C-alpha cells in the first residue's frame, strides 16, 4: 500500500539531518524512467504561502501540468524564508532533475515542519543524489516515513479499479498530517500516483473534487498552514478509465488518508464523524458542522466521553445559519439524545460504550431543509496542548 503500488513509480526516503533527532526527513517519488507524466496539484489558500508551494505551482504552470518527480523534506517548512527560501526550493528541484534525468520544471517540491527557519541546504544538497540512487519500486513506505513530523505512524493507501478495456488501474498515496488540519487542508502533504490515463484538466478536476470531500472535510484545531499540498501523478500506462469510477476511487483514497490523519492527530483520543442533515443548504450544513467541530467546549466534552448535547445545540444555534430550537435532533452512536426540545431516553450502557471508543458518530438534523455535510474531527486533550505549547 503506497505510491509504489502503482507500476512505473519509484520512491525512497532517508535521513539527511534536517531533523535534529536523526529521523528520516527527505523523500522522493518519481517515475521509474524519469519521464514526465500528467500532474495536478491542490494547495493551501493561506496567503502566507511557503516557497515550495509557489515553486510547485510555477512548475506545473510552466509544463502545462506534467512532472517526473516530487522531492519532499520534513522537519523544516521552508516558510517565511523569502528569496532565500525560493532559491532553496528551486535548488532542490534542480538537484533532483539532475539525478533522475529530467528538467527542473518537471520536479515538484514540498516541505513541512517549523516555520521561519532556513533549510540546512548543505545537508540536502549532498543527500539528494544519494536518495535518487535509492529509488525503488518498494520504496513507498520509506517515503511515507520520511515526510512525517509529529505523526506517529506513516500514512499510505492503495485502491484499484477496472479500465475501459477490462484491465486494472491503481491509485496509491502517501500523506502526512497530525495537527493544524482545517479546511482548506492544512499542515498536510499528500502525493498520489496512478497508472490511469488522464489528461491534465481531468486530473486537476478529479483531484480538486477528491480533496473537497476528504482533506477539506477534516479539521483538528481550526488552523490552516502555509505549506499544504496534494499532488497527483498519472502515467496513463494502464489505459483509459471511466471518469466517474476514477473520480470515486480517488476520493476514496483521499478520504482514507484523511481519516488516518484524524486517527493520529496530535494528542487526540477520539476521532469524531459529524454528519449534519436537514440544513437549509449544503453550505449552511458545512458551516454548522465546521463551527461545531472546531468548538473547544465540544471537543473537551468528547475528550471527557460526555454525550452532552447542549454544547452541540448551542454551537449550531450560533453558527449564523437557519436554525429553530424546536426542530433540531442530536444523536450519538445512532441514539437520539435530544429532539423536540426534550432530552430523550437512551440505552445508557450502549451510549457509554460508544463514547468510550476511539471513534464517535455524531448526527445532527437541523430540520430546516435538504442541506447536508460531513466532517471528521477530533477531541481536545492535554497532550495536544503539551505538543503545541513550544516550537522546539
Count the strands? 16
Highest CATH level, the class of the largest domain: Alpha Beta
Largest sheet: 6 strands, mixed
* Count of domain modules: 2
Helix content: 25-40%
- Rounded mean pLDDT is 93
Q: How many DSSP H or I helices?
A: 11
Question: Could you name the ranges where pLDDT drops below 50 across 5 or more consecutive residues?
Answer: none
Assign the CATH architecture of the largest domain.
Answer: 4-Layer Sandwich
Form type: globular
Q: What is Rg?
A: 22 Å
Give me the CATH fold name of the largest domain: L-amino peptidase D-ALA esterase/amidase
Major β-sheet strand ordering: 4-3-10-9-8-7
Write up what this structure looks like.
With 392 residues, the chain is α+β, with helices and mostly antiparallel strands. The protein has two domains: 3-263, L-amino peptidase D-ALA esterase/amidase (4-Layer Sandwich), CATH 3.60.70.12; 271-388, Ubiquitin-like (UB roll), CATH 3.10.20. The protein is 33% helix and 28% strand. The protein has helices spanning 51-63, 82-100, 121-133, 140-146, 200-212, 243-263, 282-293, 296-303, 309-317, 348-356, 382-388; strands spanning 9-14, 26-31, 37-43, 66-67, 69-76, 107-114, 155-162, 168-176, 189-197, 229-240, 271-279, 329-332, 335-339, 342-343, 359-365, 371-378. The strands form three sheets. It has a six-stranded mixed sheet with strand order 4-3-10-9-8-7, with helices on both faces. Strands 14-13-12-15-11-16 form a six-stranded mixed sheet. A four-stranded mixed sheet has the order 1-2-5-6. Strand 13 and strand 14 (342-343) form a beta hairpin. Helix 1 crosses helix 2 (82-100). The longest helix is centred in the middle third of the chain and has 21 residues, at 243-263. The model has no long low-confidence stretch (mean pLDDT 93).
Amino acid at each position: 500500500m503506497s505510491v509504489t503500488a502503482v507500476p512505473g513509480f519509484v520512491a525512497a526516503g532517508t535521513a539527511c539531518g534536517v531533523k535534529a533527532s536523526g529521523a528520516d526527513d527527505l523523500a522522493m517519488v518519481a517515475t521509474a524512467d524519469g519521464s514526465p507524466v500528467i500532474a495536478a496539484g491542490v494547495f493551501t489558500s493561506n496567503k502566507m504561502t511557503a516557497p515550495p508551494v509557489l515553486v510547485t505551482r510555477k512548475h506545473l504552470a510552466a509544463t502545462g501540468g506534467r512532472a517526473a518527480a516530487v522531492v519532499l523534506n520534513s522537519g523544516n517548512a521552508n516558510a517565511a524564508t523569502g528569496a532565500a527560501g525560493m532559491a532553496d526550493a528551486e535548488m532542490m528541484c534542480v538537484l533532483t532533475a539532475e539525478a533522475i534525468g529530467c528538467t527542473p520544471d518537471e520536479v515538484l517540491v514540498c516541505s513541512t515542519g517549523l516555520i521561519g527557519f532556513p533549510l540546512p541546504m548543505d545537508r540536502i544538497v549532498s543527500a539528494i543524489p544519494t536518495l535518487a540512487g535509492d529509488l525503488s519500486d518498494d520504496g513507498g513506505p520509506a517515503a511515507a516515513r520520511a515526510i512525517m513530523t509529529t505523526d506517529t505512524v506513516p500514512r499510505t493507501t492503495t485502491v484499484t479499479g477496472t479500465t475501459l478495456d477490462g484491465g486494472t488501474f491503481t491509485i496509491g498515496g502517501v500523506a502526512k498530517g497530525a495537527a493544524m488540519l482545517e479546511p482548506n487542508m492544512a499542515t498536510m502533504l499528500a502525493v498520489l500516483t496512478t497508472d490511469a490515463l488522464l489528461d491534465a484538466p481531468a486530473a486537476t478536476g478529479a483531484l480538486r473534487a477528491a480533496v473537497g470531500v476528504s482533506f477539506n472535510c477534516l479539521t483538528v484545531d481550526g488552523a490552516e498552514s502555509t505549506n499544504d499540498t496534494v499532488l497527483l501523478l498519472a502515467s496513463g500506462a494502464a489505459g483509459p478509465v471511466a471518469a466517474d469510477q476514477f473520480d470515486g476511487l480517488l476520493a476514496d483514497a483521499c478520504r482514507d488518508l484523511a481519516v488516518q490523519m484524524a486517527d493520529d492527530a496530535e494528542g487526540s483520543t477520539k476521532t469524531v464523524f459529524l454528519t449534519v442533515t436537514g440544513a437549509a443548504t449544503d453550505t449552511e450544513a458545512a458551516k454548522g458542522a465546521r463551527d461545531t467541530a472546531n468548538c473547544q467546549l465540544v471537543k473537551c466534552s468528547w475528550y471527557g466521553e460526555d454525550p452532552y448535547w447542549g454544547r452541540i445545540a448551542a454551537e449550531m444555534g450560533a453558527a449564523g445559519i437557519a436554525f429553530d430550537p424546536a426542530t433540531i435532533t442530536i444523536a450519538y452512536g445512532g441514539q437520539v439524545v435530544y429532539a423536540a426540545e426534550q432530552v430523550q431516553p437512551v440505552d445508557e450502557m450502549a451510549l457509554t460504550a460508544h463514547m468510550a471508543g476511539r471513534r464517535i458518530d455524531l448526527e445532527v438534523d437541523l430540520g430546516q431543509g435538504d442541506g447536508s455535510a460531513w466532517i471528521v474531527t477530533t477531541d481536545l486533550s492535554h497532550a495536544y496542548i503539551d505538543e503545541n505549547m513550544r516550537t522546539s
